[in-house]
Every structure is written in structure tokens, then in C-alpha cells.
Amino acid sequence: MSLSLDFLALPLLAAASLIFFSVLAGVVSARAGFSFLLVFLVVGTLAGVDGPGGLVFDDFRLSFWVGNVALAVILLDGGLRTEFTTFRTGLRPALWLATLGVVVCTGLTAVAAHFLLALQWPLALLVGAIVGSTDAAAVFSLLKSSGVKLNERVAATLEIESGMNDPMAVFLTLSLIGIALTAAAAPMAGPDVNWGALLIALLHQMGWGAALGLISGFGLAWLLIRLGRGPDGGGGIRALLIVSGGLAVYAGTTALGGSGFLAVYAMGVIAGNRARKQVRPALSAMDGYAWLSQAGMFLLLGLLVTPSELLRTLWPALGVSLVLMLVARPLSVWLCLKPMRFANNEIAFVSWVGLRGAVPIVLAVFPVMAGVPGSHTFFNVAFVVVITSLLFQGSTIAWSARRLGVTLPDPSDMAQARQVFGDFVIDASTPMMDLCTFYGLPVPSESDQSAGRWLREELDRPPVEGDSATLGKAELSVRSMDGQRIKQIGIKLGD
Questions:
Q1: Residue 265: left (phi > 0), alpha (psi -120 to 50), or beta?
Q2: Residue 236: CA atoms inside 13 Å, Cβ hemisphere, count?
Q3: Separation between Cα atoms, residue 409 and residue 397, nearest integer Å
Q4: What pLDDT tens digit does each residue of the chain (495 aa) get?
Q5: Which letter, b or e, does each residue of 309-318 get, where b requires 16 or more Cβ atoms within 10 Å of its Cβ?
Q6: What is the CATH number of the domain that holds 237?
Q7: Contact 337, 347 (CB under 8 A)
Q8: Residues ≥6 apart with Cβ < 8 Å to 195
Q9: Same domain, 64 and 176
Q10: Which among 211, 221, 220 has a CA at the least distance from the CA of 253?
Q11: In terms of C-beta density within 10 A (0-12 exposed, 13-18 middle, 19 or more buried), how is residue 234 classed?
């Protein structure tokens, strides 16, 4: 009698084949502008019970576990690549978007879910919370693969927001699950909400997440510096050390009731900046870990979907998705960014790139595991939202960025640089009186100041490359920066 290894070979064959064909299809589809992540999700669905693959998979617990681990790895990788300089322009708006923005988006989406899906308000709010946050995996990967260079303000806001808004979405989802279960148990009494306890829980999650993330980030940076780079650069082994440390911090923070997502992102930011020389060789391996995490997560989540069930709520779910993309996200972004003097084109782009990815689907597993009535409907709605977001928003990032004018020219493309910044370049220290006299422009009231100071005050916000202001018939723009100081100004003269 011989031992059969089918229990090893067959699942491994299925998993490896799915990933292989997903990556192959992704390479082909990326040339047409479609997202790799969308391909993984679709391949997983086709391999599922209603597709040609016919694989029966309904292990929500395993998918939940894989999804959380994968998101932790992706956030860690994103944090390692986030430079401190981006926080100068991106932290404050990202914080508002990651807190108030998620709450507003949740509420507006809940209105659509209430009327389109005929859900009671606790359940409608739960749907809004599930799809209310942007997805780090989608934002990091699609911005990187779009091929466009965004101005620092927009890029930093989007990246930091996607790394920081998961804790709020998780908190809202868990809180609303408790409210929904209470309402289901006593439908006549209505939910008894202890708002004080919820606020304390939120502060507890954020506080532990931020504190443990910062402490572990400094600790990891110190360790990496002490270890050095090693004889071979140590890229692969350093990446393994970073990933295992990040997952330990994520798990420990979660066990203490804190936000593991916030902790692992903060850890990556601190370690990536304080030990930049030691981390840089590991980024290539980290990129591989992140892509493997995304592939496994999206394939498993695709396998969970049953298209025949999804079709029953397809049109209402599409309605919720459209309200989210065209109403809830734009209004929440406008409320958060307009007071910070973001330009209208920047607000429009940040609104459009509110990408939904694995996070909503992972959050939709929460109510399924908790036994919330009708929870499979939430999962189907989240799946439709993600598909439409990746299909319409994810595939148009480059086009919308150019259309809305939030891109920067390639430094080597002089023709494009002249088109954006104008034909003339001056030093920012040039006195305004000299500049206005030479180009025949109206002299501002404080003519004794430099052109750089005038432009900074006219913008009334931290300047970034590509910012511009009008003076008479001319447009003055920030052509280059030296830290926080404007270094060069481009001048474009009108007719």
C-alpha cells in the first residue's frame, strides 16, 4: 500500500495554475489599460463554482485570514516607500479624508443602500462602512503602474489616505455589526447605542495602533542600521526580516485591541525613512511579497463569489456603486479638501481615484462570520463596487490625470516642460519689481519681495512643483523645489 500525495499535489496544482494564468492574463490586459487586480478577481470568479473551473470554495474564515495578512504586507510595503517629505503636503488632508471623509462617504452611501436595497438603516450604514474606504493595494499598485507623474500634493494625499483610512473603516464596520445584531435581536426596541463607549473604542484603536507602530518603526530602524547591509547587500533576507517583524506587530497590536493596519503602516514609514540605505536593497523583494499577497487575496475573494447569487442584486448594487463614485466620494472629498485650498482639478482627481479593492470585500466577510442577517448580500454588493471601481476608475487613472492637469512633465522632455511651465525660467530669488519691469507685468503692492515669496503667499498653501498663480497676462508656476523652498519659477506669457 503506497501513500497518495494527491492531497498535496492537486491543491498546489490548482493554486499555482491560477496564479500563473492570472499573471499572464494581467500582463496582456495591462497593455489595454486594465488593472492587474481586476484580472486576479475575475480569474478567481471564473475558477469558482459557477465558472468553467467549477471549484467549490466557501471558506470565509480562511479568506478573512489571508486577506488581513495580505493587507498588512501591502500596507507595510507602501509605508516603506512613503518619504517623510510627502507628509509636508499630504498628511493633513489625508487625515481628514481618512476620518471625516470615510464617515461622510459611509453616510451618503448608506442612503443609497437604504433605498436601492430596501435595507433598514443599521444594515444600510453597515454597507456604507464596508465600501467607504479606499484600498491601499489598488491605490499603491495602480498609481505606480499608471505611467504618469502626479504633483506631490495629489500623490501624497492619495497614498497617505489609502494607508490610513482602513482603521476608521474597520472601526465603523465592527461597531455597526454590533448595532445591527442588537437591532435584529430586538427589532421593536431599536438599537441601544453607547456613543461614549464607541468613542473610547475608537481612541483605543487609534492610540494603540499609532503608539506601537511608531515604537516598532524606530526599533526596526535601529536594528537594521546595526545589522548593516551584509556582504551581498542583504536584500532578500532583510525583506524577510521586515515582513515577519511587520506581521508580528500587526498581530500584537490587533491582540491588544489596537489598529494593526495603522501600526504596520506607521512602522513601515518610520523604518523606511530612518534606515533608508538598509531598506532600499530590500524593496525589490518587498515588491514581490506585496504582489504575491495581492494575487492570493484577490484570487481567494474571487473564488468566494457565486455569480448566480450576485445577479439577484446586480442592478441595486450597481446603483450603490454609482452613488459612491459620483456622489458620496466627490462630496466627502470636497468637504475635506476645499478648506485647504486644493484646486478644483485636484479635488476632482482625488475624488475619481477613490479606488475600491480588496478592503471592502475583506470587510464584507466580517458580517458573514458574525452571522448578521442578509450578510451575503453585503458581500455581493462589495464585489460589484470593487469590480466597477477597478474597471472604470482604475483603468482611467492616466487619462483622467492628464485631462485634469495634475501631472508633471518628464524632466527629459523639454517640449512638454515648456508646455506646462512656459518658455522662461527665473530664479525664485528674483525681485518682483525686476520681473514685472522686464516682462511688462502689473507690479503687486509688495514689490520689494522676491518672486518665490510672492508666489508662496499667492498660493496660500505649502507649494509643490506644478503649482501656479496668475499675474496680469502671465502665469507663474513652481518649476522646481529645494526642500520646502521654491527654487525656480516658470513663466508662461499669454497673448
A1: alpha
A2: 2
A3: 16
A4: 556 666 678 778 877 887 787 777 766 666 655 677 788 888 888 888 888 878 888 888 988 999 999 999 999 999 999 988 888 889 999 999 999 999 999 999 999 999 999 999 999 999 999 999 898 878 888 887 777 889 999 999 999 998 888 888 999 999 999 888 887 766 655 566 677 888 888 888 999 999 999 999 999 999 999 987 655 555 788 999 999 999 999 999 999 999 999 999 999 999 999 999 999 999 999 988 988 888 888 888 888 888 888 888 999 999 999 999 999 999 999 999 999 989 999 999 999 999 998 889 899 999 999 999 888 899 999 999 999 999 899 889 989 999 998 999 887 778 888 888 888 999 999 999 999 999 999 998 877 899 999 999 999 888 999 999 999 999 999 999 998 899 999 999 876
A5: ebeebeebbb
A6: 1.20.1530.20
A7: yes
A8: none
A9: yes
A10: 211
A11: middle
The size of the chain, in residues, is 495
Strand partners, 469: 476
Question: Does residue 426 fall inside a structural domain?
Answer: yes
Residue type, 349: F
For Cα atoms 418, 424, 429, give the angle at the middle one, nearest 5 degrees: 125
Domain match, 227 and 265 both: yes
Cα–Cα distance, 361 to 366 (Å, whole number) = 9
Please check whether residues 371 and 449 belong to one and the same domain. Answer: no
Taking residue 245's Cβ as centre, other Cβ atoms within 10 Å add up to 20
Do 225 and 337 sit in the same domain of this protein? yes
pTM for the model stands at 0.89
Backbone angles phi, psi at 426, to 5 degrees: -130, 160
CATH code of the domain covering residue 474: 3.30.465.10
Whether residues 427 and 399 share a domain: the answer is no
Q: Give the total number of structural domains in the chain.
A: 2
Owner of C-alpha cell 515604537: 215
Q: Which three cell numbers stand for residue 36?
A: 492587474
CB of 458 within 8 A of CB of 478? no
